[in-house]
Amino acid sequence: QSPQILKALVEMALIESAESSNRIEGVTVERKRLKPLILGHSKPLDRSEEEVAGYRKALDLIHKKH
């Protein structure tokens, strides 16, 4: 049960981080689109969604290297 809880917390933190960081830059995406974009389950439909997906890719690179 603990690994599942940890996975859910990491997922939630990633989504919240992506939303907040992009919002600071003036990039907004519908809340219902955030999770699929961040988790890679959906392709971006516009420039704002591309920004959010790019943020996720950048975080992936950082986590894989460190």
From TrEMBL:
It comes from the Bacteria. This is Cell filamentation protein Fic.
